[in-house]
Amino acid sequence: MQTRLSTLRKDSAGITGLETAIIMIAFIVVASVFAYTVLSAGILSSSQGRAAVYLGIKAAGGAMEIKGAVIAKSLSYTGESLGTGDGSTTLFTTANNPVATGSETVYLAGSPQSRDTNYTITNSTGAVTFISSTVVTGESIGTGDGATLIFGPTTSAPIVADSQTVYLDAAAQTEGVDYSIVDATGVVTFGVAPGGAVAVTIDYTSVPPATGVAITIDYEQGGVNEVMFTVGVPLKGSSIDLTITTDSDADGLLSDESPKSHRTIISYIDENQRVPDLAWTWTQSGRVVGTSDSILDWGEKMTITVKLTALSPVLAEEGRFTLEVTPEGGSTLHINRKIPTLIDAIMDLK
User: Fold this and answer.
1) Residues 43, 160: one domain?
2) 258 near 312, Cβ under 8 Å?
3) CA 342 – CA 197 distance, rounded (Å)
């Protein structure tokens, strides 16, 4: 009996050891799998975190900042040529449009013309149409002083040949006897100088610009047409590619250009519109680091001019707007400004 009990005890001990070994092996396997899973997840999380950090560093390093004032400009033109008269053509058009209402002065051979008397204008297109056969009466061309022989030019020119009557203190004078006149300009030359305080007046009929007469115009476009600002790279930041794309059709947009060379996108936002990928150019400001090229390096400044001619409606008085300047791979620079109550040719925006 004792021998059998001893055998049973030995068998029982053998079974217990085997089970323990199996349990230990299972625990090790489960622990290994769990550890591998946790380690893999940690590596993946660390890799994604590292990538996010690197991306953030790259975006921050690819930033730019404003250096100085933000300037808005209302475009004006002085002495722009509309062409040369030929004696029959009445329609001439400005090179730029729109023309701000009431801002224009039209000249024939340097002599200012009267709107609605000598010409009409379509502000949206800049089309100037001269009024043919306009009758002018009692126009003053000066006052005698006993010495001056030449008076004029007339407000409207040219004039219809032989359509004029010249008066000295309301007394009609005779062409070819008392005076001569240049029809293209309306300049009157007397043979004998009119006496002191004598009023010199003229009646005449104007015609379309005569052959060879220069037609010019001064005007403003109205609203804000350009915004200028100077940018630089923050301390030890990454260089910014400011390669430009030429606005070949001069519509103020780069989105319709092909091929495109620019890597920095400038977009416009106000309460009425969002216009992406506006046309812009740059000029170097201050010192040059390395070579003078389109790469904005740390320590350099570049002045960017953004064209706003594609806006509809235009940016007008008291208008608030935002420019978004986004370099390739960098963070976006937001420029928020307001236009003053009175638009000047050049405005420092706050």
Assistant:
1) no
2) no
3) 43
CA-to-CA distance for 44 and 50, rounded, in angstroms? Answer: 10
- What the block records as the tokens of 192 is 């004998």
pTM: 0.55
The CA distance from 182 to 210, in Å, is 11
Instruction: Let me know whether 340 and 236 are in one domain.
Output: yes
Q: Tokens in use for 63?
A: 């930033």
> Domain of 2?
1-61
User: What secondary structure, in 3-state letters, does 299-346 show?
Assistant: CCEEEEEEECCCCCCCECCCCEEEEEEECCCCCCEEEEEECCCCCCCE
> C-alpha angle 332/336/338, rounded to 5°?
160
Average pLDDT by stretches of 10, the chain with 350 residues? 50 58 71 64 53 45 83 89 88 89 88 87 92 84 97 84 95 97 92 97 86 89 90 88 94 94 97 97 83 86 94 91 94 95 87
| DSSP label of 164 | -
Residue 252, phi then psi, degrees to nearest 5: 85, 5
Looking at residue 8, its pLDDT comes to 45
- Check whether residue 254 and residue 337 sit in a common domain: yes
Residue 188: what residue type?
V
**What is the C-alpha separation between 65 and 335, in angstroms, rounded?**
10
For residue 53, the model assigns a pLDDT of 42
- The partner residues of 74 in beta bridges, in order of sequence, read none
Residues 108 and 42 in one domain: no
Do residue 214 and residue 92 come from a single domain? Answer: yes
Reading the block at residue 218, the tokens are: 């001064």
Are residues 144 and 15 located together in one domain of the fold?
A: no
**Listed residue (297, 234, 232) closest to 61, CA to CA:** 234
3-state secondary structure of 34: helix
Q: Specify whether 91 is located in the same domain as 214.
A: yes
Question: Number of folded domains in the chain?
Answer: 3
The Cβ of residue 345 has, within 10 Å, a number of other Cβ atoms equal to 10
Predicted confidence at residue 5, as pLDDT, reads: 45
The pair phi, psi for residue 84, each rounded to 5°, is -130, 135
Among candidate residues 28, 61, 94, the one where a domain is terminated: 61
Q: Count Cβ atoms below 10 Å from residue 73 Cβ, excluding itself.
A: 17
